[in-house]
Amino acid sequence: MSKPPFKEPETPAELLAALGYARREIRAAEKQRTAAIEAHRRAGGDFVVRLYDGFDRLWMDVTGPLSHKDATVKWLAETQGGTKNTCYEDIDLLHFSCGYGHVAFNRRHP
Hints:
Order of helices and strands: HEEHE
Strand order of the largest sheet: 2-1-3
Radius of gyration: 17 Å
Number of helices: 2
Helix content: 25-40%
Structural class: alpha+beta
Largest sheet: 3 strands, antiparallel
């Protein structure tokens, strides 16, 4: 299914429809990410905790390769139980990702 071209919402109904579409896209992306993390965890792959510096717009590694359990413990400790630095609105965002690879300077999530 291809994405429809973006059209600026003109009525409240169109705005609500656009928000619904965005929410569905976000949920679908989260499901894919969750499935990828779960498959990587089952395969015994490494994880790395990364920090997004919202001021410089850069991702950087906070840890080296960790197990899923250790990455989760580190992420929970750094985010005060998941209550701090967990969204882009916090400027700095902590996130853990599959694998331990080089973070490219491309201003996007790895």
